[in-house]
Amino acid sequence: MQRQFNQALFSSTPEARDSLLQDIRGDNMRECNQRLNVYRNNVFVSLMDALGEVFPVCKQVVGEAFFNAMARQYIERHPPTSPILSGYGDQFSEFVQNFFPAQSLLYLPCLCDVEYRLLQLTHAAEVPTLSLEAAQQRLSQVQNPEALRLHLDPQCELLSVPFAVGSLYLAHQSETPNLNQLDIAQNEYLLLAKAGLYGRMYLISAAEFDFLSALQSDPSLSQALPDQADFELGQTLARLMTWQVFHDIQES
Amino acid sequence: MDTYLNQQTEDSHLSSGFAQRTGISLKPSYYEQILREQPDVGFFEIHAENYLSAGGPAPYYLDRVCEQYDITVHGVGLSLGGEGSLDAEHLEHVAQLVERVQPKVFSEHLAWSTHQQTFLNDLLPVPYTEQRLALLCEHVDQVQNRLQRKILIENPSTYFEFNSSAISETEFIAELVKRTGCGLLLDVNNVEVSCFNHQRSAAEYLHQFPMHAVGQIHLAGYSLDENAQPALKIDSHDQAVAHEVWQLYQHVLQLIGDCPTLIERDGNFPALSVLLQEAEQANQIRRLAKEEADAKTI
User: Fold this and answer.
1) What Gene3D superfamilies does the annotation carry (chain B) (predicted)?
2) Which long-range contacts (CB under 8 A, 24 or more apart) does A91-94 make?
3) Percent of chain B predicted with pLDDT > 70
4) Which of A103, B187, B202, B215 has its CA 20 to 30 A from that of B195?
């Protein structure tokens, strides 16, 4: 019965529904179909809503009708495999890339990828990081800056993206997004980190991206300093300490 | 039949918020207000599947709410009515949550939602046959064994009935209780929805329902699909509790006396005060039922 039910929900051909319809009480086929459709509608609407909660900015950008059309096809091709829906949509970005009606929105898969990563960060366990005060205190006690080791929270993610999806995402955190200054074709560097209970995204410079990438593989400050002329160590450290992304600061 | 009737635990409920005052669903949009204002509700109910992440706001706020209120855990994804075996990993996650939260009640549904690897995110109907009953009993036994407690199973809202069903829903449920020792969560809105959709008498359904096993009641709102022929009531949980559901609730309490009750809301969330008013309305009906029961014993 479940197999027939599953087929009836996911297939558009009448044949797929027939065997289940035979087992439904009703005065006529129209009524049986109507009754079955309540379940079909419940399944799709609830899953479209679930995807809308995972990709809220994508939904805002393309509009509800477009998003739901895209989500419906995704659900048909990649139905969830777990009752925990906060992890649903892991292939959505890839799907969107190949979704023909969205082909002109080149940045959309990239935006979906960022949104998915942020939500997974939100649901990940909180890892203790240094508060701004604690980080400042550690730095003030440093004897030899050359020997400083900056340990980033291992959950931090660095992304170099070919579109301004970071700015697009941040603009949509406001109720009235202002997109006037936004050049979506601009590449961006993003830092995703957990701040308190939530995954957060920060725009960083190319030099900061290089600096943080280097710190991820080797926490030695002296080894990580980038060559770029626009890199201001003091400013960058101040920003990173405010975002509380350091797991530890030590002097080796 | 395994028995998990821990009498001591059951008695301790009698003095708790859960037993005394109506509860409401715990939803993210209310977290901050609940902690700030500490509303006078008996308990909060969570959907297990929304509280299984390692971090983030859900477990954080749940812990805070747990410090001050009784909690009930309502599973929506174990697929107890399914044809296949239970998802052991998911059951383990749910069991860990139950161990952590120590809820007054753990409840699940007479429904299925998982087919092989696919989770359909809806409570899908079960044909009432001896074969499905035996399988459901196995699943309920498995959950009760893992949780080491009696669980409550909720009567479903359904939009069609199977020709292959050989026994009535109430007989099926009564037999489930007899074989597994589980309790029941009587969802009064589901009774209204299903009886309307199958053109049956809700009073008759309640008369046949194994009321002795009811440990909790759910009240919720439905929506009406008037375009359907015949019209169908949909168990949407996004409206206020309907007038006829309040009437049925009164009738249920006349039959069984006072019973822990939840105002269940899963969408179209109103101000918290609106849910609190509904909970108070349930409390008033419960007080009347208690007074009537007391009057009878004098």
Assistant:
1) Divalent-metal-dependent TIM barrel enzymes (3.20.20.150)
2) A92/A51, A92/A54, A92/A55, A92/A116
3) 95
4) B215
Mean of the per-residue pLDDT values for chain A? 95
Q: Which residue of B has its CA nearest to A87?
A: B53
How distant is the Cα of B55 from the closest Cα of chain A, in angstroms? 4
Q: Which of B114, B179, B94, B113 is nearest to B140 (CA)?
A: B179
Cα dist from A184 to A167, A200, B23, B167, whole Å: 8, 20, 48, 62
Average pLDDT of chain B to the nearest whole number: 94
The average pLDDT across B178-193 equals: 98
Q: Is CATH 3.20.20.150 what the domain over B7-297 is classified as, yes or no?
A: yes
B268-292 pLDDT, tens per residue? 999 999 999 999 999 999 999 999 8
DSSP string covering A160-228: EESS-HHHHHHHTTSSS---TT--TTS-EEEEEEEETTEEEEEEE-HHHHHHHHHHHH--BHHHH----
Which of residues 8 through 37 in chain B touch A, CB cutoff 8 A?
none
- Chain A residue numbers touching B78 (CB-CB < 8 A): 83
Rounded to an integer, what distance in angstroms lies between the CA atom of residue A240 and that of residue A224? 15
- pTM score of the predicted model: 0.94
Q: How far is CA A145 from the centre of its chain?
A: 36
Q: What is the C-alpha to C-alpha distance for residues B216 and A63, in angstroms, rounded to an integer?
A: 41
Q: Does B88 touch chain A (CB under 8 A)?
A: no
* Whole-angstrom distance, CA of residue A47 vs CA of residue A133: 43
Considering CB atoms only, which of A1, A42, A124 is closest to B55?
A: A124
Instruction: Give me the residue from A25, A83, A125 closest to B55, CB to CB.
Output: A125
Residue B14 neighbours by CB under 8 Å, 6+ apart:
none
Closest-CA residue in chain A for B118?
A: A81
Burial of B227 (0-12, 13-18, 19+ CB in 10 A): exposed
User: How long is chain B?
Assistant: 298
Instruction: Note whether A24 contacts B161, CB cutoff 8 Å.
Output: yes
Residues of A with CB under 8 A from a CB of B: 1-3, 5-6, 9, 22-26, 30-32, 34-36, 38-39, 42-43, 46-47, 50, 79-86, 122-126, 194, 197-198
Extents of the domains making up chain B:
7-297
Of the candidates A9, A124, A198, the beta carbon closest to that of B120 is on A9
B7 pLDDT more than 70: no
